[in-house]
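Two proteins were folded this term; both appear here.
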Amino acid sequence: MKLPHALLDALVESVLVFDDSARLVHANQAALRRLPCEPGMNLADLGPALGQPLQDRLRAVLAGGRIEAYFPAGVSAGSAPSLSRLDSGPWVLCLPPEGSAVTLPRTPLTLIERPLRELRALLWTAPFPAMLQDDSFRLLDVNDAFVALTGRAREALIGTDPIALCPADERRVTQEDRERLEREPGEFIGPALRESRLVDSDGRSRWVRSTRYATGGGAIGGRRLLMTVLQETTSEHVAREQAERFSRELDQWFDLSPMGMALFDDRGLVLRANQGFEALSGGPLVDLSEAAAPLHRLLNWSQGAMVQPLSPGGAWVSSEGALPHADGRTRWVRALLRCDEVRAGRRRYMCMLEDRSAEDERDLAQARAEQLLGELSTILDSSPAGIASVRGHLLTQCNSRFERMLGLAQGAASGCDIRALLAGGTQEPLDRLDAVLDRGELYETEVVVQDEDGAWHWYAVTIRRTGPAGRMPLAIVVLSEITRLKTQQAELAHLASEHERMAGVLGQQADRTRAVLDSVLVGIVTADEQGRISWLNRSARRMFGGDLGDFMGQPLHTVATDETDHPFRRTVPLFGELRDGEALQFECRVQARDARTFWVVGNAVATLGLQGEREMTFALMDIDQRRQAEARIAEAQASLQRIIEAAPMAITVCDAATLRVLQLNRAAAALCSVSAPDAVGRSLVLLHPQPVGASLQSDIDEALAQPQVVTPREYRLVRDGRTEIWDARFLPLARSEDRVDQLLMVSTDVTTQREAQRAELEAAIARREMLVQEVHHRIKNNLQGVAGLMQQAVVRYPQVQPIIAEVVGQVQAIAQVYGLQVGNTGLLAVRSVIEAIAQSVQRTFGRAIELTVEGDPGWRWLLPEAESIPIALALNELFTNAIKHSPASSGVVCRLWLEPEAVRVEICNQGRLPADFRLDRRPATVSGLGLVSALLPRRSASLVLTQQDDTVVAALRLAPPVVRCERATP
């Protein structure tokens, strides 16, 4: 059973707890005040304190294991010592309080033991971990805070050496420290402050700062005791490591950022730049005056200053432009610029450059690819041939004509094996298809397919590989209908026999002429003076949809449409109008025998036949597909025109050379406040009011100088008392031989978007400032609460008043700094900080501090937030030292010197420095001048202590960058 030590300490009776070996394991507060005892002592050591009779009786009871009370003669049971045991656990000896009938020998505490005893009584209930060790450094007792720190039970710690709790790499240092402690002479050794590590029960390392108090050989039983007080500093080490890591990560982020980053001031001096910035700017820069003009435009820099100075902490300002590169190419770069801070009276600007060349090229390539895909889709859908793509042997994509040719439903061909689709009607085996494609050659064959009406159609098949050879090569399959060609071949065979039969009649020359005319793609028709067809070639028969016998002797207007002025109906008048060899051009529609209607363009020539008779020869060319293409183009143009007119964006097309408006939609006309007919023909620059017109001219010139990219710009217009923001894009059009013919301008009203973005940014800044002020206010209140708790502890424990008072002063100094930061977002005035610290020290010690200001009051010195706490603590220590080391009747004088190069603080008090005093020999401790030396920055801050007559002067000088200077405005 574990004894409640806190309950035993509350008893007025003296209670001693022994284990089975008669070793004292605990003594409550009453026993410690009454008896010269300590945990770890044996029963024999307590003989002088308990008396020999009681000691013998206790030894007998512990040896026999009996529970009884010791009653001297004439003493009642309630006033006698009693010994009891709890559940086979420790033995508890309860002694009557002082003043009872039983008196015990009293051994007074020595001068060495009394401060150690009082310190132990104070620290055993304190939140600081504390432990008591014997002359062999084994633990005699620990308080609850030490148990919580190590995570181990008190019983497991008592009797052990705490060096086992140290990491292996620190045990040697701890052993050397112990050996030095044993060699220290004297009866009492003052506190020795050091930092070390302990390993708790979970294996975690805990950083602690320890202070030791030891007695000499005059302690109880001639033993040497050691009292150690610990303070855990693990969070300080973790915070310091995190701060260092964050600093290194920030430097790595700046140097390794893929974007170009640079920091420069308002003089153009480049303070820092990474490799990305140097690569985009053309090389390392020391001053912006060395940069090229395009970079000046991007950075808003002209003639050694910012064109439009930016406010500190404002929003990022974006701009884009072209920068020349060392390899001769031009890169499109986006620049982000903002004023980062004001340091030493100068504004500092942060710039980030982003190479947008790849994005612009990708956008152009994507637009071109979409245009090509659209054109390709249109070509495939309007192509008279069936086209499909094949990967391996599987068909992946085809147009609708390909499926109709093979008699398949729409979408049924996707995923089918091309060999299976062509196997039914091919005239050539497909087993050599793979070999031909592997060689990269063209595979050709013919297939015949029967449609739903029972008609047979012949198709020429060509397959060519388009990608690299492999297990699944990509190929293109093209089906071209050759049914008429097959028919013509049959007719040719028939005509060949006819030609043989009529060879003697027509002659060799006629055969050659007809053969030539039969082989051409142009339709040739010969008519006599009555307009009857005497002959037509193969191309003409294919156009008219019949054989030669179907048209021989028939009037030419048999294939004409219903127009009365059709050229085929005017053959007879044409004989009288045309002279031999004279040609007449015409364009008309033809009605074939299969009910097809199509357009042809042709020539009519009056000639003489073989027998000398006059003939009319017509040469015809099918232009129906061209007509259909022209109709589709006209329809597409009309659709595009309707889309442009209905678009909410302002779209304007102007001539690139004169900038005169060629076309604009209603939104563009409304933007210029003119009607669309009135705007056409006028200059695009003159249509817009100033100053937009002037900037528009320069922007257009820049866009025309870069015909391969889209040039974005933003303009502000004031219309009807309202400021509008328009985002404009310039795109050169109709390029031919590096000449820009037209310029497209597309503008969009982004006023609402910009206002929403600005409102969101302002709200975020306001929320951040409010949160920062609230945090500073709460930190100040919490620090003042901590100081109040420490002052209450001084009332309860006056012996620690000097230490607590010094800590309270430091906490109050930090609270004063946070109090100044409430309602002040930015830098703190040095004078305000000094006044606040002086008032805090005055309230603490009740001594007056006189503050005077010397020098030019026009110089206003400021403290950054990061430096305010260390400087405030240093000033607090200097004021405290001046009051402590000066007579109570004298005052302390503080003089603040304001100079253009630095600020100087002199704190004067009556007193004298030691003869051999040197500030550089002071250790960097947590209090006094050692704390001041540790807090002050190594550079730009100095402290000098001098003796001037009977006055000690502490002169603290602070220079940039520890402080910043601003010239106060009158």
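Next, the second protein.
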Amino acid sequence: MLPRLDPQELVEPLYQQFAQALKSQAYSGDISTQYGARLAVATDNSIYQQLPQLVLHPRSKQDVQEITTLANQSQFAEIKFSARGGGTGTNGQSLTPGIVVDLSKYMNRILEINVEENWVRVEAGVVKDQLNDYLRPHGFFFSPDLSTSNRATVGGMINTDASGQGSLIYGKTSDHVLALESVLANGELLSTSPMLIKQAHELAQQDSTIGNIVKQVIATSIGKREQILSKFPRLNRFLTGYDLEHTVSDDLSQIDLSRLITGSEGSLAFVCEAKLNLTPIAPAKTLINIKYDSFDSALRHSPTLVEAKATSVETIDSKVLNLAKQDIIWHSVSDLITDVEGQVMDGINIVEYNGQSIEGLAEQVAMLTEQLDNDIANKTGVIGYQVTTDLASIGKIYAMRKKAVGLLGNTKGAQKPLAFAEDTAVPPEKLADFIAEFRELLDSYQLHYGMFGHVDAGVLHVRPALDMCDPEQEKTMRSISDKVVALTAKYGGLMWGEHGKGYRSEYGPEFFGEALFLELRKIKTAFDPNNKMNPGKICTPIDSSESLVSVDGVKRGTYDRQIPIAVKESFKSAMECNGNGLCFNYDTASPMCPSSKVTRDRRHSPKGRAGLMREWLRLLQNKGVDILQLEQNINGWSVKRLLDKVKNALSTQRDEDFSHEVMEAMSGCLACKACASQCPIKVDVPDFRARFLNLYHSSYFRPLKDHLVANVEHMAPLMAKSPKLVNSVLSSKLYDKASRATIGYIDTPLLSVPTLSERVNTLQFESFQLAKFQQMTSEEKANYVFVVQDPFTSFYDAQVVENLMLLVQKLGYSPVLLPFKPNGKPQHVKGFLTKFAKTAKNTADFLNQLQQLAIPMIGTDASTVLCFRDEYQQVLKEERGNFHVQLAHEWLLTVIDHLKSKNNPFTFRKNTTTFKLFAHCTEKTALAGSEKQWSDIFNYFGLSLEKQSVGCCGMAGTYGHEAVNFENSKTLYEMSWQQKVDNARAEQLVVTGYSCRSQIKRLSNKKTKHPVEVLVAQLSE
């Protein structure tokens, strides 16, 4: 039995009082005090962990003013804040022991665009890719480009002065900020944009907050300008924290406080709105992927590429490249970055040219490729290159480059490449020598590491592999940090060239020197005299005795090391989440984590759920619970366990158990498994979610609907014996009302009439008799195909299985319907792991017996067929055997290859219909090429099939049938599917997933076809 878990860090009384007081104000946002909500923002993309007291989600800048005005009252003088956007910071910039003010959930509106004047006004929570998707039809984009662009917010970009690829041409975020609307720690609204020096001097005379700020900025930025210019390196990516150099124009005629706030890491004010200038989209691009025999060759060749006046020059080392090759993402670029025969590719540089036309870029490209041909001939380290001008292909390469950043975290072993010294910046001409010495430093510690970055700007991301659960390696991390600071200074650069200071703020005084650092503190004092805004980051106010944060700050490893190694290994998927946040992908057309998209709650994401799971395991360990032993001992039924569940159900302390917070987050998961392939770390939430549910329900009763779902594979065959009678009951209003009230289940699907058995008998397909097939010769068996049933298509969508068998027949084979064997997927989804293991073993034994016949086995439902490959392997391990069930399209590809060898005996009438393919989430994420393969299959049979970019339909098995999930299910469908479904004719819709076809029928009232139904019709013409 699970013990009750009390969160170890309760909200402090002062913050509880603040939360209560805020509820009585005109504040309209969310206030979260739950331990789980706080944990979800206790980490970012760094190695650090800091639990906040509260999490606030304001809906407007007026809400932010309500927060800060209240906190300015004397009784709340000790309240501290930190702004948060996408949580993508690699140095703990947004972590705080006070209040996290998350601007991403609601303050994500694009407010205004002026195409004539080339600007847009947005709220701080707008995601970078969201903004560019909005701007694209207008011919513009917001040019600072980040690897985290699908979840990084504009507010976060402003606070860290983000840059990224192409910054030599496009500059940093600060180069594109025209004006800001910010809220100060005292609640005042601060509007900033360039002002004439005369106006600034007039403001400085005022006895007001803004007057004091401008007065100090004049005194520092102009009065100390000589020291500033001599100290600040002349680097493209240089990030001071407070950009004292560019706050005033070169001719000292203007002052712009926005340049000061940009890059301040939220330590001066809450950025709420921004007016940004826009960059016209260059319609033509040419990308040259240059391949090298070593990474050193790639680095030493980079100055030549910078001289070639390219828009950007990016580099990737062999470690990152090889990790990408092992990921699903490589499928999309394998033909764009091919190996060089007889050579080992140990690094690449990616060179991009932008222009108005391909022809206009031709001369530059030709000059570079001629140079590359000479370099190859002279054996300078260049071993090959590929040129592409196709925009879609270029997009795929950059998608790989962006994901490769996160893939570093998926290296095997306890030591993981970590971001703590990964944004060093030196003059580009010194980069190769700097990196050579950097590598010597890391090699002296015998560490593995990955490297990638922007060689055109002298920025290279270096991530040494360390295990932060090991206290000794934590000390090594500190030692390396100190040495990298000294090394960058030696080469005229600095450690924080791109990703800000955060927990590296302690190095600020040494870098700036006492006098100049004092000026930073004066600026902080003018904006935030009481040190309420992200305290400890960059600097402290003049009169403050508080310390700067340190690289020695508390890390995630401090908590993770409290979990036994065996448990960490067993729950590896949850433990290895590194916080990269790819699961926060805003794009509704992406299948990644639909629950995160629809709730916009960080707990309902793979990262959030992994964090909750880690903490749950830690708290159980602190209670002395051997979780692995408990898993083995909860099988079966006992009177004691029943009495314990009754006791827990009646307990007045029931709601205080942290297990319920974890359960709430796990219950929102659709079990679509997109995370298992889309996440660079392969965080598989359905895997550890099933284990959690199994353990949780050893102490707490399961809802009736869970039992219903888990037994659907046993109930469906029984109901199919009287389908008309059953359907008459299921379709009645009385049943629907009773089902909603007692089970919590809605829109119960109706059984197929005629049933699959009746259809098969009518068509007189050959029946399955094992002994008969065992006696056949190999030549005889080559004519047969076994059709594997699943509970969804067999009993609720029988015409799909019927058409699959007809298709097999029309292609010259004899289809044989195998007897129905439960797959167990519904049991796994609901955490009935003991039952699932038994089901899986029985079915695996049967299918392994058939595997010996060497007759292909095919199925139609992706979630169940892929369950054979994934969940069966996880649970059964060696006992799974070697049986293989193909999905329909996988088998069809083999048939087409065979038909092509026979010179294609099929001829077709012209079919002018353009079919629209809506693929099942699990299928297209686990089998990356499936959509293209379906298109190729249709093309072979004379049909046109267009892939539709959609996310999750919102049904996901039985998820959408549960009343508690209906609104989220419906919203997910509206977010991604509805418009594309409604814009097509019903006869055009081709949908691979049974649950997806059900959702379309339910919410758009359109009957759709599985691809095999379309193919059968084509072969029948």
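The mean pLDDT is 93. DSSP finds 47 helices and 28 strands in the chain. These notes refer to the second protein only.
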